[in-house]
Amino acid sequence: MNRVITEDPSKRTPLILGGHDFKGISDLVVKPIEAKAPKWWHIALAFSFSLLMLLLSMIGFLIWEGVGVWGLNNPVSWGFAIVNFVFWVGIGHAGTLISAILFLFRQKWRTSVNRFAEAMTIFAVICALVFPGIHVGRVWVAYFMFPIPNQMSVWPNFRSPLLWDVFAVSTYFTVSLLFWYVGLIPDLAVLRDRAKTKIKKVVYGIFAMGWTGGNRAWQNYERAYLLLAALAAPLVLSVHSIVSFDFAVSQVPGWHTTIFPPYFVAGAIFSGFAMVVTLMILARQLFGMKDIMTMHHLECMNKIILATGTMVGYAYGMEFFTAWYSGNEYEAFAFVNRAFGPYAWAYWIMVSCNVLFPQLFWFKKVRTSIPAMFVISIIVNIGMWFERFVITVTSLSRDFLPSSWGYYSPTWVDLCTFLGSFGLFFTLFLLFLKFLPMIAISEVKGVMPEAHAHDHEAKEGH
Amino acid sequence: MAISVIGEFKDPTELLKAAKQTRKAGYEAFDAHSPFPIHGMDDAMGLKGSILGWVVLCGGLTGCVAGFGLQAWVATEAYPLVISGKPLFSYQAFVPVTFEVTVLFSAFAAVFGMFGLNKLPQLYNRLFKHKSFSKKATSHGFFISIDSELSDDEVSIVEFLKSIGATNVSGVKE
Fold first, then answer.
1. Range of the domain at A24
2. Which of the residues A21, A148, A171, A185 would you substitute to probe the B interface, choosing the one with the greatest number of B C-beta atoms within 10 Å?
3. Is residue A152 included in any domain, yes or no?
4. Beta strands in chain B (DSSP E)
5. Over the stretch A333-348, which tens digit does the pLDDT of each residue have?
6. Which of A161, A300, A407, A446 could form a disulfide with A245 if both were Cys (CB 3.0 to 4.6 A apart)?
7. Where would I find the H helices in A249-289?
8. Sheet holding B30-33: strands in order across?
């Protein structure tokens, strides 16, 4: 109990083994918030912020000129906007999986990762929400998507999967934000009680809502957290299932398949975990959090990447089998066209990134090598972006009638908008790293051995 | 005038013991403060289970009925549209949105119900006037606070907390 935090960081023992006392953990996690921001942080923020400005100017240009500035054509009327939307929503899924599903399974290692991954979820869903918003063309009537009483007495069509998507993604964003905020309240109270300036005290104080850590409050708090986890778990599975309905409920060959919901969910977890690994490697290196985000955590994540990557590979194979076995010539053509048609280059990028490279994680050496997993995690996200590109574009460009075939290529506006969405994501993420605790302080303390009261008195008392 | 008396304890084990003794001594308006929830504290304080689950059930049922009802009303009354020759009341297609609205309302009930039960936000709290409490309670301190409506009780409560091993004992006024 009386061990103090040592000055030499190399002497720290891993957190989960109890190398720090309770104060030591608060000190360690709060350090990046209280210390002056390092130089790399300012450079990274300036860079991300300029990409964010690029995004905003591209959106402004789009609204000014109209969707003609994108590469969309007839028949390919879904291009980068939909591909980027599915890509970003998918990345978000890993955060909810870690925070909700691993919580319900009582996986204590999640406490080191969950705050971080939940933040990633929220920022990724914000990026995702930008695209359907601007893709509707006339953005000033985007409110038509919501069931708002209006003077025309027009209501949305609730039998359309696109409307289901509006409800699924907006519910997902709201619930993720609530879950994240509830988790933050006790940690915001830590920041409030440690604040040295009046402004910090007031701002953190307002968001901490007057939390005192009383057990009467903890009782309701823990129940709320458990219920939110139980609600978020089926929610996250429903969200990407509904995203896949956007495709599967239509009748376009290559989209109209029942494998889509599980296939999309597996792909979403796959890409999201890869993104968490990419960000974790950077954050633990740059903020010196290696004791809390250990190699063990990274190895667990890589195993999940291997498992979900293999599922995705299975889905690719099964799509071909179903197309052949169905005996439907349009369906069969759609898949032969994917692998050998005009977009074969995209298809083979997808297969090699998603199916071949993650298989290297069978080797423990690769699974525990920082450079190897960093490269593979980025490759996986490139591959998963191409998966959405292949699904969206190849099917539309070659549908039933050869007379209405076409080839889609993005314009510079498409490319800059996509690049700009990374600016939005990283700007938010860098601000999060500086102003909020990146590790759930109260949860980490709760899994330490010292946190358990010895109960010998309890038996006497009763 | 209402007062609170606060005393500090060494670790979770001591706090659990102190909570039990406080309850035994007959105090009812008291709370045990810790930086993280302590296993077994609800029993030690003699608290009943949280009723939040019922609040969330009500929220969920409201969401379920509201979500399904809105879609059924829009499809049959407010704006009937024939889509692909399907019946207007095609309830199968209403399942996804009903599910999402159920989850949304349940989550709102869970979060705002928790705030309500915990009386949050409560930006002014006399407990923060206690020096040690305001610095340590959320980070690494373990405290018992006992409330009383009569400021005359202060002396006796201070005596009691000292007798069960508390340090930094002092009363705070409104």
1. 9-147+174-453
2. A171
3. no
4. 3-9, 30-33, 142-148, 167-173
5. 999 999 999 999 999 9
6. A161
7. 260-286
8. B30-33, B142-148, B3-9, B167-173
